[in-house]
């Protein structure tokens, strides 16, 4: 035979389909007719296919065209290959046609936590779920959850009490210190006692009571009353204020790494293991079995373990 193709070179689906038709009919004219081509064209394409793979697939010596032993193996695999391609196309159409928009409530904290990993999950993508984020305070999100506008809510504690709401912790993080670059040049780590003696930046208590109170309590435990120089609405604002040289801050490590700002340096906190970790939880209301909402919740729970 002529030179065979390089290993792994894909064969045209039309060639596979013609070879299968010839194996089924035993006649070049009939096989060609299934693809809308004439007998001579069919014969030329079969010959080209045999040249490409480097083996004889068909025996033309009898009244009907028959398969060689190599041809029998080839046709069996060709049938599987075309079936797999057809299934792939069907699944793609199914996913495209049934794409579901899933409402998800998120706080600033949650968007810097587990959402990227969830959205990148192959099972989530294969199911065709498209996230529609509601970025709002927790009370607004909970109203949207009760009204069915969102299916899932990702938020930091404190979590609202509700007899039907289920929740699961989805992310935890230790704390890091964020200090102006000028201070970072003097040390490689930070301690609570050192931070408590300098201007400090914290989150608004109305936006994150536990984070606000917990950070100040940790500083006060050193025996020094911290000087709160600035208050910010979110973590991005906290780090931006630090970058401006207005103070230092304690920030969840995962947040600090994802919100790098020129002028602010993240330092390991000496007492990080002694402080309660920062957490994010997912909340949801049970959904009727068989619905897209129930499937999305099941996928989320399966991913979280």
Outline the secondary-structure elements.
Elements: H1 13-25, H2 28-34, H3 39-53, E1 58-59, E2 66-67, H4 69-97, E3 100-106, H5 108-111, H6 115-119, H7 122-126, E4 129-135, H8 138-146, E5 152-155, E6 166-173, E7 175-180, H9 181-184, H10 192-196, E8 199-203, H11 209-220, E9 227-232, H12 235-243, E10 249-252, H13 253-258, E11 264-268, E12 278-284, H14 292-304
Parallel strand pairs: 3-4, 3-5, 8-9
Antiparallel strand pairs: 1-2, 5-12, 6-12, 7-10, 7-11
Helix pairs in contact: 1-2, 1-4, 2-3
Question: What attributes characterize this protein structure?
Answer:
single chain; 305 residues; alpha/beta; 14 helices; 45% helix; elongated
Structure commentary:
By secondary structure, the protein is an alpha/beta fold. The protein has helices spanning 13-25, 28-34, 39-53, 69-97, 108-111, 115-119, 122-126, 138-146, 181-184, 192-196, 209-220, 235-243, 253-258, 292-304, and strands at residues 58-59, 66-67, 100-106, 129-135, 152-155, 166-173, 175-180, 199-203, 227-232, 249-252, 264-268, 278-284. The strands form four sheets. Strands 4-3-5-12-6 form a five-stranded mixed beta sheet, sandwiched between helices. A three-stranded antiparallel beta sheet has the order 10-7-11. Strands 1-2 form a two-stranded antiparallel ribbon. A hairpin with a 6-residue loop joins strand 1 (58-59) and strand 2. Helix 1 crosses helix 2, helix 1 (13-25) packs across helix 4 (69-97) and helix 2 (28-34) packs across helix 3 (39-53). The protein is elongated. 30% of the residues are buried.
């Amino acid at each position: 035979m002529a030179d065979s193709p390089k290993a792994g070179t894909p064969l045209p689906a039309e060639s596979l389909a013609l070879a299968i038709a010839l194996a089924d009919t035993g006649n070049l004219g009939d096989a060609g007719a299934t693809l809308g081509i004439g007998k001579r064209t069919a014969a030329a394409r079969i010959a080209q296919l045999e040249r490409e793979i480097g083996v004889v697939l068909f025996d033309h010596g009898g009244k009907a065209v028959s398969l060689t032993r190599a041809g029998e193996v080839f046709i069996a695999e060709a049938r599987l290959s075309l079936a797999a391609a057809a299934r792939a196309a069907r699944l793609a159409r199914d996913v495209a046609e049934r794409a579901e928009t899933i409402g998800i409530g998120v706080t600033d904290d949650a968007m810097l936590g587990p959402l990227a990993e969830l959205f990148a999950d192959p099972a989530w993508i294969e199911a065709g779920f498209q996230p529609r984020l509601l970025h709002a305070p927790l009370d607004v999100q909970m109203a949207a959850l009760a009204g069915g506008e969102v299916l899932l809510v990702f938020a930091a504690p404190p979590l609202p009490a509700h007899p039907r709401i289920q929740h699961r912790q989805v992310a935890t993080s230790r704390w890091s210190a964020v200090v102006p670059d000028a201070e970072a040049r003097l040390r490689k780590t930070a301690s609570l006692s050192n931070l408590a003696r300098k201007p400090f930046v914290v989150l608004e208590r109305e936006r994150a009571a536990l984070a606000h109170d917990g950070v100040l309590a940790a500083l006060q435990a050193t025996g020094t009353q911290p000087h709160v120089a600035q208050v910010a609405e979110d973590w991005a604002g906290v780090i931006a204020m630090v970058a401006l040289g207005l103070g230092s801050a304690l920030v969840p490590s995962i947040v600090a790494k994802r919100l790098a700002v020129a002028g602010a340096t993240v330092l390991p906190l000496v007492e990080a293991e002694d402080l309660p970790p920062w957490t994010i939880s997912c909340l949801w209301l049970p959904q009727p079995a068989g619905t897209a909402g129930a499937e999305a919740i099941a996928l989320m729970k399966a991913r979280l373990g």
